[in-house]
Structures are given as C-alpha cells and as structure tokens.
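Listing S7. Sequence submitted for prediction.
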Amino acid sequence: MPERAAPPVSAGGLLQLVRRGTATTRRDLIRVTGLARSTVTQRVDALLAARLLTESAGEAEGRGRPPGTLAFDEGHGHVLVAGLHRDRAELVAIDLGARELARRTLDMAIGEGPEPVLAAVEAELTALRAGLGGTTVALGVGVPGPVDVAVGRAMQPPVMPGWHDYPVRDRLAARFRVPVFVENDANLMALGEQRVTWPDAPALVLVTVGAGIGAGIVVDGTLYRGVDGGAGDIGHIRMYGHEERCACGAVGCLAAVASGDALVRRLAALGKDVAQVADVRRLVQQGDADAVAAVRKAGQLAGEVLTTVVSVLNPEILVVAGDMAHTNEHFVTGLRELIYQRSLPRATRNLRVVTTRLGDAASVLGMRELVLDEVYAPAAVDALLAAR
C-alpha cells in the first residue's frame, strides 16, 4: 500500500513547531515542513498579526541578511489559576511564560462545599483580573480529587464532600467567559515536573504526600488519566493488616496509614506536640527519634504500593512531592528501601527516585502546560485565526 502524504502544516501547526523549539526562523519552517516560502510567509504573518508570535529584528529574506528569530508571544495574555486545597485556595495569575503577575490566598476549607468556596474564588479572581488588564486566555482549577476532565467535574472525591459531579467548569466558564480546565492537583504537579525538570523522561510518576496521598502519571509527555480520571489515586489502595479508618470511609487505605494526617495522629498518640503536617516536618528536622521512625515507616508503607506502580509502568523518574518530600530524606529513604527490595532488578535498573525540584510551583507550571497544549493546539489556533 502506498504511503499517505503528510497533511499540510497549517498556521497552528507552524506555531506548535515554534513553541516546541523545532523551528525558530522562517527558513527553519520552510526546511522542516517543505512548504513554499510564500505559504510560510502568509501563515507566519497571520500569527504575528494575532500576537501569537514575535519576531526579532533581522528577518528579511534578502540575500546575506541573517534571519530573525521567531518565538511564541508569552506576553499576549495571562492565565488565572485556582489551586483548591483542604484548608485554603491559592489564586495566581501568570503570563504564558509562567511569570507570576499576582497572587492571593483564601483561608477556606474545601469541605465547606462548592457553593461558598467557588463564590469566594469567583469574587477574588474577578478583583485580581481587574488589576491586571490584558487578555485572560484561560482559567485553570486544581483540586485534590479525581476529575473527569471531559465534563470538568470532580468525581467521588474522598476529601471534598459535596463536590461530586458539581459543574465546576460550566459555572466558572459562564462567569469568566474563557476556557476553563479542571484537573487533579497531583496530575498538574506531575505534568509540571516532567515538562520543566525532566523533559526527556519517557515515563514519570509523581507521588505527593501531604495531608493525603495522590499520584500523577506522565507518559511520552502526556498525562495518563485512565478511562475517567481515576488513574494515580494510590492513596486509597488497601493495605492489608491495617484497620485505620480513611477519609473515604474505608479502612486500611494507604492514606490512612502513611499520609501526613496519619503521622499527626500517630505522633499525637505518643504525646508529641503536633496538630498539623507542618509540625511533623518540624519534629523530623529537629531530630526527634519518634518522628523520624514514624516518617521512615510511612515511606516504607508507601513503597509497598509504589513497588507495584514501578513494576507496571516502568518509569524512569519517580518524584516525591508534598510535605514528606521535606523530611530530611527520611520518608524517601523508607520508600526507596521497599521499592528496591521488592521490585525485580529490571524494573529499577533505570529508575531514579528524587524529590521535587519545583515544590509548590509544580502545579501552576503544570496548569500552564495544560493550557498551552489545549488553547494553542493547531486546530484551536486555526479556528482562532479563521474567526479573525
């Protein structure tokens, strides 16, 4: 059977080549795509007029003149990001290069339900946007629970009472009149770490251990969410031999025995002065023997689950994030012990277990990557240009 000809590269496709660094001049675009000079010129000029590209001085196709450099215009708009946590909402505005423009924090428990939480978030984001000016390209919302991204709703989230199937995306889209993306927070962190820190890793798993436990999976640069957003929900895998009650209502979940909340309960029962996960970190950093032992044991329990994850996915990078990433390596040491003890050598031969390099910024950077992938996909860009 004869090979099919490659489809012609549209203006949106040219923008993608520039964004990814595959081509950075008009001459590069001609060489990479095989398009005629006149076609590339027409499409690049349209992208420049729409402020999707910038071009440095020097691009004149005259003989002997150096070509100018094309770049994605990161300043033509901004993204609003709302990170919803158990006890607060972090609201950030960033430009398309991920430079922070404004930030606000709401001390508000997610357990209060979607109506009061989103009403407060809407009010703060409206005020924040008013102070920015310019174009809001998209709004991204990160939540600590499984999300069906096709409809933009959290689905049966254990730590978000009242949020199941609530139309988060539709409500915010109606208010702000921009594309809205709702995503699991661990997925966002995983995407941020992979794109920014480990761009060459073909498979990366990020496990975040704070008040709860979750994981995000990136394969070939793309989030793996499962059939309906449930991939990576390792915090609710049953640990046999444990009967601790979990927030989801089951007993013996990994989150019930190895999360920050579980460590707070365990150390408080020993008479330690702990009320929140930050106190566990403080005790470990002070060298408290009971806290160190408890954190290391929690790492081993997490390692039991991640041994299976490593064997199934065979990742190159396993990133540990959240509060337990900052416990003087004690949690990570316990986790490594179990993974390397219980896994076949082939599964861990090329595995690197590391702590997050981006910290709290990972989720915001992940949302930026998600927005760029969706809003500036070739078909979306072509539709935008056609509408102009």
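Caption to Listing S7: primary sequence and predicted structure tokens for the chain studied. Residues 17 and 23 are 6 Å apart (CA to CA). The chain has 14 helices and 14 strands.
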